[in-house]
Amino acid sequence: MTRDGSEPRAVAAQAAQAVLDRGRALDTVLPALLEGLGDSRDRSLARRLASGALRDWPALDWLVGALVDKPLKGRNRQLHFLLAVALHELRDGREPDHAIVHAAVAAARCLRGQRLTGLVNGVLRAFGRRRGELLASLPDTPVLRFGYPGWLIKRVESDYGDAAPGILAAGNEPPPLWLRVNRRRIARDDYRELLERAGIEADAPAGFPDALRLAERAAISALPGFEDGLVSVQDGAAQFAADYLDLRDGQRVLDACAAPGGKTAHILERRDVGLTALDIDGERLSRVGNGLERLGLDARLVAGDAARPDDWWDGKRFDRILVDAPCSATGVIRRHPDIRWLRRDEDIDRLAALQGTILDALWPLLEPGGILVYATCSLLRVENDEQARAFLERHADARGIDNTDMPGRPARPGRQILPGEHGCDGFYYFAARRLPE
Ligand SMILES: C[S@@+](CC[C@H](N)C(=O)[O-])C[C@H]1O[C@@H](n2cnc3c(N)ncnc32)[C@H](O)[C@@H]1O
Q1: Is 305 in the pocket of ligand 1 (CB under 6 A)?
Q2: Pairing relation of β-strands 178-181 and 231-233?
Q3: Is the pLDDT of residue 406 over 70?
Q4: Which of 202, 220, 370, 411 is the most exposed, having the fewest neighbouring CB atoms within 10 Å of its CB?
Q5: How far apart are alpha carbons 263 and 238 in whole angstroms?
Q6: Residues 6+ apart with CB under 8 A from 424
Q7: With contact defined as beta carbons under 8 Å apart, do 104 and 83 qualify?
Q8: How far apart are CA 406 and CA 408, in angstroms?
Q9: What is the mean pLDDT of residues 95-119?
């Protein structure tokens, strides 16, 4: 840990600024920034503070605005973010106030030199003195209350009514770490024992045959046998895809939006199938190859557009097709707090149209009697139930498969899993069988 705690705070401020001012994804900017931090505790603190500031951005932004005499502009805008990170820490209360102020002042020195350290010190001390009054005067708007942009709050309210506040709040809870055990290599209970021996506590939730859920977050490097392919990190809800596909050995399977390959690998761990992993993004597709190599699995990797099968399809139909579609990712906001600030309202209808185009382009590639599974990590009905309903209306030879044979699932095609349900991310699944010709 750095002696003055400055570096993780400076990194958190830079990461938050990259997301909010430059529209960069946190997962893209953070790794490079974290490289400069030698200590793993500093890295996890920087990650926690950046995520926390993004979750609570509207209130923090308002507080900084209320505390500074004039807006911090140009290169000094970095300090606006640093102050927001420090205010988040002061509200969170995990460290004594004086330690937080001291670290923030040192971070200001790191970022902008000695000149504005007095301002940072003064603002944070003023917050300490006026805390009650300032927090009481925070505007009581949905944006500040929930920490989401207004357009997204409106969409969730319109889709879910009275349940919306709980759903939005669940998106602000830090997620648990889920693992998927590679049962080709080790039984789930045996891997759980390995974890226990390494001092990592996990439970094996019912209804998730390959999953373990950790009681506390752990570094990947601490997971026994990770490099040897015993285990992968994958949310519980993402593990339903393999169930919905209802796989048999020997089938031809298309994973149409495959990268980075979590579901590809799960399918291959489950059954001996001939799998084509397609993705439009060649660079992301290479991550599928790396993951499969670690797990001792193999697939045909194809870089191509799922909406244009004529460019890559060999003309042999598939028994199973998984469309894990590009989506708003509004179901995984608790894991990626930047998503709410990076997405725009107008993206949603564009994504829904693309999902429909991909589904229509791939449907003829399915063998009669075969199953197509459509998945999103979205909460929004326009990408989920409405997408499935419109698909069934367009394709007379498609029958939605209901969920009755899936334990605890309602008897209708399509299932929305809400964030936090069974400790999972928000996900949606819809399965359809192609009727014989
Ligand atoms: C939700 S992610 C898939 C996650 C992956 N199935 C997994 O479990 O790890 C969606 C993927 O769709 C890809 N994609 C977007 N548009 C596509 C298209 N038109 N054709 C094929 N892939 C596409 C993106 O590059 C991205 O990798």
Answers
A1: yes
A2: antiparallel
A3: no
A4: 411
A5: 7
A6: 178, 235, 236, 237, 417
A7: yes
A8: 6
A9: 93
CA of 355 to the centre of ligand 1 (A): 11
339: Cβ–Cβ under 8 A, 6 or more apart, which residues?
328, 329, 330, 332, 333
The span from the CA of 282 to the CA of 293, in Å, is 17
Task: Detail the DSSP E strand segments found in 58-120.
Answer: none
Residue nearest to atom 15 of ligand 1 (CA): 326
Instruction: Please tell me the residue having the least CA distance from ligand 1 atom 11.
Output: 257
Nearest to 321 by CA among 251, 260, 372: 372
Residue 362: domain span? 237-434
Where is 432: in which H helix or E strand? strand 427-434
Q: Residues with Cβ < 8 Å from 355, sequence gap 6 or more?
A: 323, 325, 326, 327, 374, 376, 383, 387
Q: Could you tell me if 400 and 278 lie in one domain?
A: yes
Contacts of 294 (CB under 8 A, 6+ apart): 227, 229
Instruction: Map tokens 């505007």 to a residue.
Output: 139
Residues labelled as active-site residues: 377
Same domain, yes or no: 38 and 10: yes
For residue 174, name the pLDDT band (cuts at 50, 70, 90): confident
DSSP-derived secondary structure letter, 161:
G
Residue 128 shares a structural domain with residue 222: no
Total count of domains within the chain: 3
Q: Are both 216 and 253 inside the same structural domain?
A: no
Q: Is 430:336 a contact under the CB 8 Å cutoff?
A: no
